[in-house]
Amino acid sequence: MGERILVLVRHGESEWNLKNLFTGWRDVDLTENGIKEARNAGKRLKGQGIRFDLGFTSALIRAQRSLDLILQEMGQTSTAVFKDQALNERDYGELAGLNKDDARKKWGAEQVLLWRRSYDVAPPGGESLKDTAARVLPYYIQEILPRVLQGDNVIVSAHGNSLRALVMVLEKLSPEQIVKREIGTGVPLIYRLNADSTVAERKDLAA
What we know:
Oligomer: single chain
Strand content: 5-15%
Largest sheet: 6 strands, mixed
Strand order of the largest sheet: 3-2-4-1-5-6
Order of helices and strands: EHHEHEHHHEHHEE
Radius of gyration: 17 Å
C-alpha cells in the first residue's frame, strides 16, 4: 500500500473572476493569468515528485483546462481523467452573470453577503453551500475516496465551493468555519490520508 495522496486545486483565474461576475455553472474559460496559475500549480506539484494515477474534474471548461495544464507541466498527460457535473461550482441561480456590485445594488449588500457567505441560504434559483455539498460529497465517497484509500494518487481540479465541500469533510470544519475559508485559484492543497480517511497531513503549495 502506497501513500494515500489526494490533491485539491481550484481552477486558475477565469474570465468572469477577472470581471467580478458571479459565474456558477456558466461555462467560461481561463484568463491568461489563469493559464499561468494552472501551469505554476503543475510546476509546484512536479517539484513534490508526485505521480498521479488519475484525476477528477467538473463538467466546466475552466476546471478541465486547468487540470490539462497541470498535467502537461508535470509530464503526465496520459493520466486518466474523469469529468462529472457533481463537481461543478455552486449554482448561483439569478445571480449568475451579474457583477457583484450590481447584485448589491439590486438586492442590498447585506442580502448578497448572506447568499455568498452563509452555509444554507441559497440565492434565488440557485444553490447554497449545503446544497452543493449534497451533490459533491456522495460523488467523493463513491468515486474518489475509494481510489485514494486503495493507494492511488488522485488530483481533483474543481471550484471554490465544490472544493469547500470536500475541505469541510477532510478537515472536519463546521459550517461557520468553512464559509470563512478562502481557497485561492491555482493553489494545490496536498492531503495525506490515514487508512480511516482522516487527514494525516495537509500542505498548501502557495506561490
